[in-house]
Design brief:
With 152 residues, this protein is an alpha/beta fold. It has a single domain (4-146), classed as CBS-domain, CATH 3.10.580.10. Helices cover 42% and strands 22% of the residues. The protein is built from six helices and seven strands, in the order αββαββααβαββα. The strands form two sheets. A four-stranded mixed sheet has the order 1-7-6-5. Strands 2-3-4 form a three-stranded mixed sheet. It is elongated and about 75 Å long.
Length: 152
Amino acid sequence: MADEESEREFTVRMFMSIDPLTVKEDASIVEIARSMADRGVGACFVERDGKVVGIITERDIVRRVVAKNLDASKTRALEIMSKPIIAVDPDTSVEDALRVMSEKKIRRLAVIEKNVLVGIVTISDLAKALLQKVEIVNMFVRAATRELPMYG
């Protein structure tokens, strides 16, 4: 096909961040917040025995620790994490990933391949993907309309 490249599906793999932050389930919220700040990320995955069992976001820290006036140095990841993990395969289409986020009312997805956490994709990542897709479509439309003969 001549337009095979334009037909290629945008997948999560193309837009995900690799090497997401992970913390142990017994890590304190203070440790987690520092790690998130150091990495410049808004979420981390919680691990137990090398398996991802939950996710903690900045929003979780605010709502489940700060707003409840819990001691962040004594509160542990397993106490506030969201579970179960909602995940997609890296070859999931951008549209399907957005559909999952919409249905589950979440802003981040774990990306798991062969039972291994390989990345994270956010709603912002997928919005950028859709913008790129629109720009490509517009480019093809402009090219096609320039090639059409003018009748008048």
